[in-house]
Amino acid sequence: MASTSDIRNGLCIKYNHDIYKIIEFLHVKPGKGPAFVRTKLKSLTTGKVLDNTFSAGHKIEDVRVETHTFQFLYAEGDQFHFMNSETFEQITLDKNILDAPDLLKEGTNVMVQINTETDLPLSVDMPASIVLEVTYAEPGVKGNTATNATKNATVETGANVNVPLFINEGDKIKIDTATGSYMERVKE
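^ that's the sequence the OP posted. Answer follows.
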């Protein structure tokens, strides 16, 4: 058993007969009344996100997890295939477990959290950023760069990303996997 002081991003807990992963949390201590923790929980079985508030000192049941490095092999419809980098064992995960499946490139290493009681995968943590090549970008109009103008671009995984006007086809860009937004152009 853990308490609200142990809450952190990525913690897996049992709540309402389901397993949830804490995405965001905020400890709040109002001037009047007891302290509480406002959390955003993601169901690891359905992928739904819900907001919940725990009062300070509330006991929560945490789930013991192990984290292993897996390499993304390929996608087949809504099924994503991964291989354990140490044991070469392969697993198949459903698309709704992944946070940003449209940004996964073949060969990318991800961290998979596995429930130690049932040996079932719970969640997939992608790297903080990923470098992808732009396969299609509309041409930028010269003179439109006075403001932070953006245009739509398609990267090699098929995802659409808003990029600055100076990005062209063939450029490699760094994308934040948490928000799916453009970070910077990568020079080689």
